[in-house]
Amino acid sequence: MGCVQSFREICDRQKNTNVRLSLPAVCFVWQTAMIILFGVFIRYNEESDTHWVEHRKANNISSDIENDFYFRYPSFQDVHVMIFVGFGFLMTFLKRYSFGAVGFNFLIAAFGLQWALLMQGWFHSLDYTDGKIKIGVENLINADFCVAGCLIAYGAVLGKVSPVQLMVMTLFGVTLFAVEEYIILNLIHARDAGGSMVIHTFGGYYGLSISWMLYRPNLDQSSRLQGSCYHSDVFAMIGTLFLWMFWPSFNSAITDHGDGQHRAAINTYLALASTVLTTVAISSLFQKHGKLDMVHIQNSTLAGGVAVGTAAEFMLMPYGSLIVGFCCGIISTLGYIYLTPFMEKHLKIQDTCGIHNLHAMPGVIGGIVGAITAAAATESVYGREGLVNTFDFEGAFKDMVPTRQGGHQAAGLCVAICFGIGGGILVGCILRLPIWGDAADDNCFDDESYWELPEDEESVPPILQYNNHMRNKDQSSTHCSSTK
Amino acid sequence: MGCVQSFREICDRQKNTNVRLSLPAVCFVWQTAMIILFGVFIRYNEESDTHWVEHRKANNISSDIENDFYFRYPSFQDVHVMIFVGFGFLMTFLKRYSFGAVGFNFLIAAFGLQWALLMQGWFHSLDYTDGKIKIGVENLINADFCVAGCLIAYGAVLGKVSPVQLMVMTLFGVTLFAVEEYIILNLIHARDAGGSMVIHTFGGYYGLSISWMLYRPNLDQSSRLQGSCYHSDVFAMIGTLFLWMFWPSFNSAITDHGDGQHRAAINTYLALASTVLTTVAISSLFQKHGKLDMVHIQNSTLAGGVAVGTAAEFMLMPYGSLIVGFCCGIISTLGYIYLTPFMEKHLKIQDTCGIHNLHAMPGVIGGIVGAITAAAATESVYGREGLVNTFDFEGAFKDMVPTRQGGHQAAGLCVAICFGIGGGILVGCILRLPIWGDAADDNCFDDESYWELPEDEESVPPILQYNNHMRNKDQSSTHCSSTK
Amino acid sequence: MGCVQSFREICDRQKNTNVRLSLPAVCFVWQTAMIILFGVFIRYNEESDTHWVEHRKANNISSDIENDFYFRYPSFQDVHVMIFVGFGFLMTFLKRYSFGAVGFNFLIAAFGLQWALLMQGWFHSLDYTDGKIKIGVENLINADFCVAGCLIAYGAVLGKVSPVQLMVMTLFGVTLFAVEEYIILNLIHARDAGGSMVIHTFGGYYGLSISWMLYRPNLDQSSRLQGSCYHSDVFAMIGTLFLWMFWPSFNSAITDHGDGQHRAAINTYLALASTVLTTVAISSLFQKHGKLDMVHIQNSTLAGGVAVGTAAEFMLMPYGSLIVGFCCGIISTLGYIYLTPFMEKHLKIQDTCGIHNLHAMPGVIGGIVGAITAAAATESVYGREGLVNTFDFEGAFKDMVPTRQGGHQAAGLCVAICFGIGGGILVGCILRLPIWGDAADDNCFDDESYWELPEDEESVPPILQYNNHMRNKDQSSTHCSSTK
């Protein structure tokens, strides 16, 4: 701690948010690198290549409709919407950081998915005959998943970092993700279709650790901008709802064809419905006069989808999904009420969007639910073939049994947590270097730093312009309506 | 009427909008009940169960792609978006009730779909061998449909009821829906794929009857909040467009595989296109200076989708769809101009969103169009097999002929109207009890009652804060821009 | 030019924006004409007709899932969202023209798609045995595509024309589109699945030419309304993101079943990702202090999708897609910085949304990329069958070779440009007639002209109302927050 503290002091400096050289440099160089690496490594797979016709005949596939594209493309598009509109708009709730929320989310997702195609490709889709990565629609989904981990982490540091820092965070985040994913899914042989462990637990702790490393003791100087305004809260609901609605597609996007996708969608649909009710209940119960808090409705209603991620493809049963959602709505909302302020005050973790309550905790719960459900699987419930298919007890793992699978699931969860925390501390160190162009403590949560803002002044009548001129800028600048 | 009047007086009381005990209690108890009932009754069906592999082989199904999931999941997701974003955002048009619109819509839909899975399951998906309800993607779509009926009713009482009342309204609404649906589809053997009768007519009259029972003579005291503001109208267009675009999926989601889904989508697409033009025409023609009214564009453009619901799967013909849309755009817009004020003044029905013009009337038209189209069906147009498939002239109804089917369709429409009005009056009585926490007449359409609102004041310059302090709160509070 | 100039002077007149007679008349008459023409010409095709069952058996189709509906409907819905939400919200960026942006977009798209079904049907789907146009889901997609061309053109004249002018522009635009599409795709036998040439190049130059013909020398009198405000920029991001996310569906919607759709989606996904990074880089590099400009983020990030439209179905290779996106992000952003002001000042082309940078230039680049990729195609890369399938070297074109195909692609591009410019000048002449109800130069970009606006005044405190009354209306009227 002492070492960390002094490192922090070393990095304190006069802040300069001018990224005119660093941001274009990073974008150009990294995008050029992507082109070169794609040129060397990435090709179409047999289902997206013009040789598909021959492949079809050779493999006796009766119709084009059996191309994986038709199994997964609708889910892919739903996931794509979650990544760009869902995450992007969920973060627009701050009254004066909507451009940064949706814009930087757009930037890092667009970069991250390219890097993810490479990193995940090397681990999972490398064709050893020619050393090329062969990609199809499933790779696109996995790249979006990988990016989701980094966007979760963005939630913790929203408004406090520069776009260059976000790019660095994404570069390392995707790399760490691909490694932990390979360890968890391939080496440990845990199942995690919806990514409770691989995506949410990892992404959550990765972001929290970075936020801890980047602790800003004087962040209250920006407190005037740390809240929402009426319309920004409505914008955030666009994000919430698209995440909520498409989460069944998220959890079912890469599960087995047929019953696997079908069941995962049903389980997620139910868990999410249940979460909404307990979130509303707790939000009302713990507020003065029983009024609901938009922060809870925007975030905690999604916790059920996170927590059912691992077990969604198992025979969790419809009531099991409801129970998972029930508990997560409660835990997540209580987290916003008690845990977030506690973490900020005592653990020095400033979590702008409360990702600990929405991703990290529900992710851990999801890992545990997955382990229990796997350990409790029986042939009478799954059927002989169903058990083998669902848990992929094939190849090197053909002697696996459900109880041991439960242990592997738990091991996978531990790996995700370790990678998240360890990786976050490492990357947090890098991000403390005084070269990234992040804003000073009294200038956070403000789009002014990185965006040309529309000059709303020109529409202000003279008397107000005079007032504007007179008053302290700190107290007045907001884009939200102000006559309430 | 006299009896109703005195009942109203009995229920008049000092309003208290504190729902801190009632709302959490309802959410917790009902969600717990759902878990128990799901535990007892609900299981996966053969297409979402791990036994699918065996089922596939036993039934000689050549590929996983023939799992019903792939026929219906894209449509399901579109319907899901309509329910949560479509209905939710359509109702955000009020300047100061956007949280309530999108938030309570979210709450009651999430509860309603669980209850609908049970209620519809008992009627339609009960497996008599083991007494369980077996669910798959089609059940999810039907649950969303069922919820749509209640959300339509919410439109009539928007801003005037408490969340607890909405939950009660949804509980009874779903129950009534499941019964009338069973009577109309199974006993009467009417066809209603897009739910013109079952969803829109029922939901519309259900909501209007409740609104009539809850008549507020002094609602004009809230008139300052009953309008829209510029940005809230743009938010509402998000709802309008997602409803409009995905309506073809709504009307085709549960029609027959193959040509049934294909035809229903085409008919709905065309009817909706036609409605837009006549809505614009009437809106411009009946306003001073030919200016368009956003209320019409937001709502009446959707009437064609409602009215083509029943007949969309029939051979309505492309020009038939256009004609239906043409008429509904006119009728619905005229309804907003003349009928809504008339109903409020003379019939004591206060219809916040104008659901009579958007759902009730077009729903009745849709029922009539369905009856006529069915009665006019001939073997020369449909083909022998096509006729049997389209109207499901099988089993107990294998001797049915088109003309008689037309009569059954008309009978179904009457049942929907009766259930809507009767159920609405019954539920309206219950909702008048002085225990539900609804707002007083001068406090309607105001999120203040049930939501923690962002404190926009902190950003107001001193001179304005002083003004804010001085002026009558009633006249000033709005989140919309106010310097125009 | 002199002739054009004097024509302009002839058409100058006192402007009157009252469209109370013309707009309803156009809507009613044209919609009635549509009904009659649909009645005479349009029927269901064999996949959406009740005879599908018999067709299936006769053609030995094993399952309903092979109905084209299941291949294309998810893509169709994505395209539909792009047309109505994508284009509609992208144009809401103006602070006071959001109703017109999203509302008129809605109107002309709803009309255009009906007219497109007829025009394209006569050229492509006419059944010569009975003289009827047979439609299915692919026709709906093509109608949406055709409409896209007109919506692009709307972007150039946004805020400067009346809804009646827009209807006329759409009527002619769809007609011209259908002819040039027939020439390019059928006579010249160019391939253009994503419409770089047919849609974007044509639509772009069509709109620019109209805007040139409608040049307003005193448009700076409306300059107070020509910018965005904070929330209108966030609304516009909704449009941007839905266009960006669903562009893979746009470019793959009508490509070949199987690998064709699969590959087009992958290429578009990659090109768009690459564009985001170079757009951000250029935007930051060319602004003071490295701040990003929302105009670039909203528009230039989409240029990669346009430019990869033609070649997306070819073996462009993943790195090829990245390169195309890389270049287009740079060119498009530089276009906004240098070319748009230049064109306004020196060429008298006022391009409200910068469609030259987003559609016209990238469309031309897309045509060139398509020609090069086609000319470079080899049997070793595509496979013998793959080459024939991808370029459709069948029937009258069975002797075609890739190099010659490249020439045909280039010829197609020229046709698109000629039709765009020629058609635009012609239609621009018509639109200069003094009968269309467009606004005066000092009243552009203002919803006041054609919409009943919500009376935000009622919520203004007395002191402000007084101020409102006193001050010059020109300087004050805006719906955006004004206390910043």
Automatic annotation (TrEMBL), chains A, B, C:
GO terms for cellular component: plasma membrane. Coiled coil: none annotated. Keywords: Ammonia transport, Cell membrane, Glycoprotein, Membrane, Transmembrane, Transmembrane helix, Transport. It comes from the Eukaryota. GO terms for biological process: ammonium homeostasis. Residues 67-438 form the Ammonium transporter AmtB-like domain. InterPro entries: Ammonium/urea_transptr, NH4_transpt_AmtB-like_dom, RhesusRHD. GO terms for molecular function: ammonium channel activity. The chain crosses the membrane at residues 21-42, 97-118, 164-185, 197-215, 235-254, 266-286, 319-339, 360-378, 410-431. Its main location: membrane. It is found in: Cell membrane. It is a multi-pass membrane protein. Pfam families: Ammonium_transp. Belongs to the ammonium transporter (TC 2.A.49) family. Rh subfamily. Functions as an ammonia transporter. May play a role in the elimination of ammonia in the gill. This is Rh family C glycoprotein. It comes from Sparus aurata (Gilthead sea bream).
